[in-house]
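Hi F.,

I've been meaning to write this up properly since the lab meeting, where we talked about keeping a consistent format for the predictions we share between groups. The idea is simple: the sequence comes first, exactly as it goes in, then the structure tokens exactly as they come out, then a line or two of notes. No screenshots and no reformatting. I'm using this chain as the first example so we have something concrete to point to.
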Amino acid sequence: MERLTSPRTIKYIIEKYGFRFSKGLGQNFIIDESVLTRIIEGSEVTENDLILEIGPGIGVLTDVLCQNASKVVSVEIDKSLIPILEETVGHHDNLKIVTGDVLKIDVKALIKEEFGDLKPKLVANLPYYVTTPIIMMFLEERIPVSDLVVMIQKEVADRIVAKPSTKAYGALSVAVQYFTEPSIVTKVSRGSFMPMPNVDSTVIRLKVREVSPVELTDEATFFLTIKDAFGKRRKTLLNALSSGFLSISKSQAKEALDNAGIDENTRGEALNIDQFATLANAIYLVKKKEDK
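Output, unedited:
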């Protein structure tokens, strides 16, 4: 069989098995060999690494992961792809294919069963429609992986690595940067896929932090503060914080902002993660004082 990145090979496979691309599942297969090389290099996969892959498709990325890593476990939601995967990558004795929706299966149990107490790297070409839910599930539920190296929509990657006071900076930026150290691996044009999507992609590496970058009194308050601050971007922090999920009054919001040393007319997009932590800690203390 020719290279799995060959459009001719892909056409042959899908015709042989009567496969139809699903827009609903966001199926786009890589046809650029150099993209695979950049993913392997950017994720620093070695022969000792354990890999969890989501959405192997016909096994284009799976194949090179198996060639470079110690063990690969791939989770595929589309049952019609399983016989194709058995033909294209079934010869790898370090591969296990699991059928299921990664958002619904017990991923922690799967990792424990397949990798024991070791943390695999998540490497995946993620469907655009579930990019953010999958990333945030792994981070918020603290699923034991050391890195997330994922191909995602360029716009989402730009938001993840964005800095304060920029248009792309928002709640997603702060949340992901709280849990990980994000970096861009490579940019990928839409022409690198079959079928070709409507947007360009980016491979991003999220190195999971072992130690929090900020000191928090209460993590839940921190995330509610972020959610309120960016809920209505045009509002000042005073108005945003006093009309959202935190359930605090305007006077409480003003007291917290004063204690945090932040001007009440500032907007959320101007704060960095350290300032959000300081503000969240101040809000927690103000609410605790009120509860007494």
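Notes:
The CA atoms of residues 233 and 268 lie 7 Å apart.
The mean pLDDT is 95.

If this format works for you, I'll send the rest the same way.

G.
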